[in-house]
């Protein structure tokens, strides 16, 4: 079961500047380890996706994908775990449930707000909530501790809301002034979602659909029958095993036993090498972003030469400073594109084909557009190709109705 997702994204996160925002609050807790498979002690019916009457409107039970695709198993070494009942294809929604509690960003640190939301639940939902994992956070009530032990970060999926403009509430009496009254973001806790264990090579991707108020997990690759369904609690996908396990012990109380952590083959024994190379590529892109934003290696903040002359003056080799800067910026762009291409290949090889891969394609599109049309395969054409790659991944991990998917499609339509 998830042991501690207190304000931490439950999906693997590529922390490029253009990546989705994610909260980083961490609270130490204890728990159990995860593994590729375990002997089942007891099969538990998976009808734990109880809706929350305070958020769902209709509290009647509706059939959910987890009811037919998944089963809860009480394992001997790590508590409750989720396994597939049959083979599942990539892009399949395997979990969809309305949260028991959904908090706006500004309420996440408010313990009283969590207690208030819990009190608003039906008695059945309260019992379901209290059966979830409790990492027993110090100085917290049980209700608050359970929330911080299991909540999923929704920052990337919840838009800011504005109050209604005056005179437009349908009755001629406006109650708002059009100003932002919610900055977006937040977190949620779900009954079934809380049962998913961690893997450093996850096979599902988390998302939250604001329109339907549903927490969702989609298969990011084909999942065989009888395989455990795992998400990634940690945003640091580029870290080596020793660093990951150190954090797991401190913040979660377990040591992961996935293929990347306990290599069963020579291929997985090289996982740390691949992740080191990912980190190097990632840092290269970060450095390029700073250099590009700072105008390369200009010697003066105003763009002029060091002697105070204008940026259009000739240098000793006959080129203007502007021409020199243009050459430097092209070099930075090419370096970033090379690093991102390397990162793409490493992510695919490691099997990290969820959000980190989508964000890498988004970065490739941005840098290709920066390259401009007049240099080989750069420019708008290449940017469009990378944007289509991003769309392909988002269709799998988020679905065609997801906000990010629709935004990419709109961008591509404008480019046509």
TrEMBL record:
<feature type="domain" description="SET">
    <location>
        <begin position="68"/>
        <end position="234"/>
    </location>
</feature>
<feature type="region of interest" description="Disordered">
    <location>
        <begin position="292"/>
        <end position="328"/>
    </location>
</feature>
<feature type="compositionally biased region" description="Gly residues">
    <location>
        <begin position="293"/>
        <end position="311"/>
    </location>
</feature>
<dbReference type="InterPro" id="IPR001214">
    <property type="entry name" value="SET_dom"/>
</dbReference>
<dbReference type="Pfam" id="PF00856">
    <property type="entry name" value="SET"/>
</dbReference>
<protein>
    <recommendedName>
        <fullName>SET domain-containing protein</fullName>
    </recommendedName>
</protein>
<dbReference type="InterPro" id="IPR053185">
    <property type="entry name" value="SET_domain_protein"/>
</dbReference>
<dbReference type="InterPro" id="IPR046341">
    <property type="entry name" value="SET_dom_sf"/>
</dbReference>
């Amino acid at each position: 079961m998830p042991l501690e997702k207190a304000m931490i994204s439950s999906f693997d996160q590529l922390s490029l500047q253009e990546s989705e925002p994610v909260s980083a609050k961490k609270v130490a807790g204890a728990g159990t380890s995860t593994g590729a498979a375990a002997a089942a002690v007891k099969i538990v019916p998976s009808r734990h996706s109880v809706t929350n009457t305070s958020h769902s409107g209709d509290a009647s039970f509706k059939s959910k994908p987890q009811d037919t695709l998944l089963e809860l198993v009480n394992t001997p070494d790590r508590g409750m775990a989720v396994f597939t009942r049959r083979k599942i294809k990539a892009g399949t929604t395997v979990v969809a449930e309305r949260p028991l509690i959904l908090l706006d960003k500004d309420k996440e640190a408010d313990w009283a707000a969590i207690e208030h939301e819990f009190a608003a639940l039906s008695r059945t939902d309260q019992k379901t909530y209290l059966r979830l994992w409790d990492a027993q956070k110090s100085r917290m009530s049980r209700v608050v501790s359970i929330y911080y032990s299991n909540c999923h970060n929704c920052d990337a999926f919840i838009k800011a809301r504005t109050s209604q403009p005056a005179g437009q509430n349908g009755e001629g009496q406006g109650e708002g002034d059009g100003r932002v009254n919610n900055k977006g973001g937040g977190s949620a806790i779900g009954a079934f979602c809380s049962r998913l264990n961690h893997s450093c090579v996850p096979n599902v991707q988390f998302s939250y659909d604001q329109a339907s108020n549903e927490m969702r997990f989609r298969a990011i690759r084909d999942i065989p029958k009888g395989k455990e369904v795992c998400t990634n609690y940690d945003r640091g996908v580029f870290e080596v095993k020793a660093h990951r396990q150190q954090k797991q012990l401190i913040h979660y109380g377990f040591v992961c036993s996935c293929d990347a952590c306990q290599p069963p083959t020579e291929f997985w024994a090289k996982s740390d090498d691949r992740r080191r190379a990912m980190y190097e590529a990632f840092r290269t892109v970060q450095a390029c972003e700073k250099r590009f934003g700072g105008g390369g290696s200009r010697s003066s903040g105003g763009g002029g030469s060091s002697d105070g002359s204008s940026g259009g003056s000739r240098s000793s080799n006959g080129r203007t400073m502007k021409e020199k800067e243009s050459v430097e910026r092209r070099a930075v762009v090419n370096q970033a594109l090379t690093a991102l291409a390397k990162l793409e290949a490493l992510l695919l090889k490691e099997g990290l084909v969820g959000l980190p891969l989508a964000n890498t394609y988004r970065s490739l599109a941005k840098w290709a557009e920066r390259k401009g049309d007049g240099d080989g395969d750069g420019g708008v054409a290449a940017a469009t190709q990378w944007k289509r790659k991003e769309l392909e991944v988002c269709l799998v991990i988020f679905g065609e109705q997801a906000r990010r998917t629709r935004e990419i499609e709109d961008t591509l339509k404008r480019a046509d």
